[in-house]
Design goal:
The protein is α+β, with helices and mostly antiparallel strands. The chain folds into two domains: 30 residues; 106 residues, Immunoglobulin-like (Sandwich). It is built from three helices and eight strands, in the order αβββαβββββα. A six-stranded antiparallel β-sheet has the order 3-2-5-6-7-8, covered by helices on one side. Strands 1-4 form a two-stranded antiparallel sheet.
Length: 143
């Protein structure tokens, strides 16, 4: 009887240990939110907006107030939804916004509407919820 009890204690201990290891691994491997990869505001010297529905319709701004207004649309957004494509799929209206610094570094992301919903997407990073107000803020700077 003592050997049988010892076996059950060992099996119970192994079961508890394996459950503990599973919980730790699930916590370590959990999905981490995506954030938009963007240059630091103080480094940005130019913002370009490309209306991808028209050829050669790129509007460029160097005004720091406009750069800051547009920057805050994209800065500090997080999402759990990964972008697995180069371009957004099936947008109704689509713009690409590119922030650049003096060294030639740049960061680009799309802002678009689809079926009366608004999104920001950074290729192979994330798809972020946006608002009509944010979309219209970008749209007002498109010539």
């Amino acid at each position: 009887m003592k050997k049988a009890n010892k076996k059950w204690i060992i099996l119970g201990g192994l079961l508890i240990l394996s459950i503990g290891i599973t919980i730790v691994l699930a916590y370590v491997n959990r999905e981490k939110p995506y954030t938009i990869d963007i240059l630091h505001l103080e480094d940005i010297t130019t913002v370009k907006i490309d209306d991808l529905t028209l050829e050669d319709n790129v509007t460029e701004y160097h005004d720091q107030d406009i750069i800051e207004e547009l920057y805050h649309i994209f800065y500090n957004k997080t999402t759990e939804e990964e972008s697995t494509t180069l371009n957004p799929e099936y947008p109704d209206i689509l713009y690409i916004v590119t922030f650049s610094d003096q060294e030639g570094n740049s960061t680009s992301m799309y802002i678009y509407s689809r079926e009366e919903n608004y999104y920001i997407e950074q290729s192979y990073n994330g798809i972020y919820k946006s608002s009509k107000e944010e979309f219209e803020c970008v749209e007002k700077y498109v010539d």
